[in-house]
Design goal:
about 900 residues; mainly alpha; 5-stranded parallel β-sheet; two-stranded antiparallel sheet; 7 strands
């Protein structure tokens, strides 16, 4: 196995090796050649050999292969026989002496033949067929000695024949290779190729598990396809941050371990299990095993001589870390427990010694459990999480007190959930017995039900249950009470709960907590009444805590302060990735993607965030955040003019909202459909759809309504709804005077300018385009466009060109192509020629306004839709088209489209 996709779908990556094999095969007709592949077990040598076999077959080059077979370990010439078996029917075509030699060797009757003579006979047999022949030899270093000697001589002699060879082995190129042989050492797969191999081999694996496998496998293809968390809990390997080996992975190292002495096996197992790399501590542990100190020292010398470990500066290092898990797989439970017991006495670090001792203890031991618990302290880079989870699991097992046991299991479940290990979180949660713990146990399980993704939806009655549980445990467990209130507030937001439920959460918070509010308290208020906290300073402690960054980012996002949210969420994302807290990423990425729609100068970043957030959230069953990410994708698609994709996203949001029983997501579906309508010139439809969401201002959840306000105002004038839009703006202005985000301030400025009477409009636009307006590129471009249109409609044509040019440039940079084309049409109407129109007949015979109408008609827009977009009457549009058709010598819109956009 190597970097080969499951199902034989080809080699992943390995471009250098592909090129080398292709070059090698291209020269086969020039005479025998040798290609030597080497690398550690599982690195992909066999996969490259298979690639060579497939490539040779496509060139119609005959291929003969042989490899090591464990059951033939003691059979002389077994591998050579396997190689020549397809050609043995042709033995009679050889000279009698060579035929007799091969027959005697394979019958086992001949005395030891000279290897070179036997090699010449074998090559003669292979070369009987005309043309080049390719010989592929896998695991050369593990073949029986007789076959290995003969094949080595064949390699030195094949340059005189048409036989070429590809030989793979673990060791580096040896003396038996001819000087002109091509050689390459296979190295671990780069991160991108390793990730692709994991996803291809286990498409259903959750993102977090895949990342753990990547951290442990370190680019080894066999490990990438074999390692997994499995369903049997964490085992011995978790003590040193590894995943347990599978039988196939263990078999890759079995031959290396088979020849070891009992002393070598003992000290290798002890070193493999040890959480300490200090030589003396491992030797001290070995001295407690059968054979004592002398055997331990002899065993260490043996495994060092074989290259299984590297002893340097009083420490033991494993050149191939995966061999540690293979050693554990092959050792019996009794031998592992004996080694753990010895290490518990010899390892000097108290926490690490506790880990080893705990593997041998069956009863309760609180002192040992406390020492173990310290191993779970973060951070947890890479596979360090495995050690933390295993320590908490073991500490819970050793806990005599039910409350302490439950607390450790709760901590393990939270840690697993934050890192995206949903199944492990469920396993730990199942260990908490509410009957044994009463209110505390019930409170823990309520919290975990809300924390762990994938649980079945529950109704709004859960909000009261969470508040009640928070009151019950607040005195003895204030941190758990805060978490329960945060869960209740989250349910208020997702389910758009009414004032009664929101007031209950806020009232409970104020009963249990007092100002100044902590970070989680602010997040609770942001989820239930964001306007009440919009003026509160959002600051982290020193040093900042990753949980604080996420909670403050959430609070800033919910209050509409997207600039501050971006800072906190970017820091939270960096911390989550560094610590491996993949369970946090869907929340962070969905919020960042939505914020980047307004703050980004180009939307590729937002698209990447939304796509990754959706992928991770789907894998972790974070359904709410998956839908939020789809919402971001839908809004982006609509703004970019990919209307079919936008409609698909909106439909997916509707379906998910129905399944989840939550209406919070529907605002994004509505916004997506509105932008699709306005993007195709259907402003009246867009206004009607969006206006329905402003019939009642849901203040706690209104920040997305505020986003929609900008597009409501944009559609108001062409839809003939300016007076109604002014009433909506006035209502929002009144309701938000106590606290507004910077974005809402800008949207209200935009709305005031667009809807202003002529005598006020100039000053309003000046204010809307004042200092800082460029920080919101989409809104800035919308304001510039509206200003340019306003100027042109008042015959200030020359003045209109600058804002329209700016608007078109920003829209194009963002990727908002429908709006960019609309700005370009306005520029043409303002008499600014499009440099791309040179040589275009339509541009030469039509006026700028006629050209714009022709293009919109060619796109399939109706007269009414064109009229709404250009703020004309449908009759005026029809009149223009009546003149356009004869000018362009067309009689239908289909011909018009062909004329303007020839294929």
């Amino acid at each position: 196995m190597g970097a080969r996709a499951p199902g034989g779908s080809g080699l992943i990556g390995r471009e250098r090796e592909r090129d080398l094999v292709s070059s090698f095969l291209a020269g086969l007709s020039d005479g025998g050649r040798i290609l030597h592949l080497s690398g550690v077990p599982g690195i992909g040598k066999t996969a490259v050999l298979r690639f060579a076999v497939d490539a040779a077959a496509r060139r119609e080059v005959p291929v003969l292969s042989t490899s090591w077979v464990p059951d033939e370990r003691g059979l002389r010439y077994a591998a050579l026989h396997g190689l020549l078996r397809p050609r043995l029917p042709r033995l009679r075509q050889l000279p009698p002496e060579e035929r007799s030699l091969l027959e005697s060797v394979f019958a086992g009757h001949a005395a030891e033949p000279e290897p070179e003579r036997l090699a010449r006979s074998a090559l003669r047999l292979l070369a009987l067929a005309p043309g080049p022949v390719l010989v592929c030899v896998d695991d050369f270093d593990r073949l029986d000695a007789a076959s290995r000697d003969t094949i080595g001589h064949m390699a030195r002699l094949c340059g005189q024949t048409q036989v070429s060879m590809v030989v793979a082995e673990r060791t580096a190129p040896a003396a038996w290779l001819p000087a002109d042989a091509l050689t390459t050492v296979l190295t671990p797969l780069p991160a991108d190729e390793a990730r692709e191999l994991v996803h291809r081999s286990r498409p259903s694996a959750a993102h977090a598990e895949a990342e753990l496998v990547l951290a442990v496998a370190q680019g080894n293809p066999l490990a990438l396809t074999e390692l997994s968390l499995g369903g049997n809990g964490l085992r011995d390997a978790a003590g040193f941050g590894m995943l347990p080996a599978t039988p196939r992975l263990a078999d890759a190292y079995a031959e290396d371990l088979r020849a070891l002495s009992a002393a070598g096996h003992g000290v290798l197992l002890t070193a493999a299990l040890s959480t300490s790399s200090v030589v003396q501590e491992i030797l001290d542990a070995g001295a407690r095993l059968p054979g004592g100190t002398q055997a331990a020292r002899a065993g260490l010398a043996e495994i060092a001589e074989r290259g299984l470990v590297d002893v340097r500066e009083h420490h033991i290092r494993f050149p191939e870390p995966l061999i540690r898990t293979a050693v554990l797989h092959t050792a019996s439970a009794a031998r592992r427990m004996a080694a753990h017991a010895a290490l518990g006495h010899s390892v000097t670090d108290p926490a690490h010694a506790a880990w080893h001792t705990a593997q041998c203890v069956t009863g309760a031991d609180e002192e040992l459990a406390e020492r173990l618990e310290s191993l779970a302290e973060g951070p947890w880079p890479g596979a360090g999480l495995l050690r933390a989870l295993a320590a908490l699991e073991c500490a819970a097992r050793l806990s005599a007190d039910p409350e302490r046991r439950a607390g450790r299991l709760l901590r393990a479940a939270e840690l697993a959930c934050h890192h995206g290990l949903v199944e492990q979180a469920h396993q730990h949660a199942r260990g908490i017995d509410p009957d044994e713990l009463g209110d505390l146990g019930s409170a823990m399980l309520l919290w975990l039900h809300d924390l762990v993704p994938g649980n079945l939806p529950v109704g709004r009655e859960r909000i009261a249950h969470l508040c009640s549980a928070a009151r019950a445990v607040a005195a003895a467990h204030p941190v758990l009470a805060q978490k329960l209130l945060h869960a209740a507030a989250g349910r208020c937001w997702w389910q758009q709960a009414g004032a009664t439920d929101r007031d209950l959460v806020v009232r409970t918070l104020k009963e249990l907590r007092t100002p100044p509010w902590g970070t989680r308290d602010i997040a609770v208020l942001a989820l239930t009444d964001p306007l009440s906290v919009s003026r509160l300073p959002l600051r982290t402690s020193e040093p900042p805590d990753p949980d604080q960054r996420l909670l403050l980012g959430q609070a800033a996002h919910l209050t509409g302060d997207l600039a501050q949210a971006a800072v906190f969420l970017q820091e939270a994302e960096a911390a989550a990735r560094a610590d491996g807290r993949h369970g946090r990423l869907p929340h962070i990425l969905a919020a960042r993607a939505l914020g980047e729609i307004w703050r980004g100068s180009e939307w590729r970043t937002a698209e990447a965030m939304a796509a990754e957030g959706r992928m991770i959230a789907t894998g972790l069953e974070h359904r709410n955040f998956a839908v939020r990410a789809i919402g971001a994708q839908g809004v982006l698609a609509a703004l970019q003019g990919r209307h079919d994709r936008a409609r698909q996203c909106a439909a997916e949001i509707d379906e998910a909202s129905l399944h989840l029983g939550q209406g919070q997501h529907l605002s994004l579906a509505t916004l997506t459909r509105v932008l699709t309508a306005s993007g195709t010139g259907r402003y009246a439809e867009a206004y009607t759809q969006l206006r329905a969401s402003f019939t009642e201002l849901l203040t706690p959840y209104s920040f997305e309504q505020f986003w929609g306000l900008a597009f409501l105002v944009e559609a108001a004038l062409p839809a003939g709804e300016a007076d109604d839009a002014r009433a909506v703006v006035e209502q929002i202005d009144h309701r938000t005077r106590t606290g507004r985000s910077p974005l809402l301030e800008r949207i209200l400025d935009y709305a005031g300018a667009v809807l202003a009477q002529d005598e006020e409009a100039e000053n309003r636009y000046r204010a809307a385009l004042g200092d800082g307006s460029e920080q919101w590129p989409l809104l800035y471009a919308m304001t510039q466009f509206s200003h340019g249109v306003w100027l042109r409609r008042r015959r200030r044509v020359l003045e209109s060109r600058a804002p329209l040019t700016t608007a078109e440039s920003v829209f194009r940079s963002l990727g908002a192509m429908p709006r960019a084309e609309l700005a370009a049409a306005e520029l043409r109407a303002a008499g600014l020629a499009d440099t791309t129109e040179s040589g275009n007949t339509a541009a030469q015979v039509l006026s700028p306004q006629q050209l714009t109408i022709a293009r919109l008609a060619a796109q399939g827009l109706t007269n009414r839709a064109i009229a709404e977009r250009l703020q004309l009457s449908p009759r005026t549009v029809a009149s223009h088209l009546y003149q356009i058709f004869p000018k362009l010598d067309v009689t239908s819109r289909a011909q018009l489209a062909e004329k303007l956009h020839p294929r």
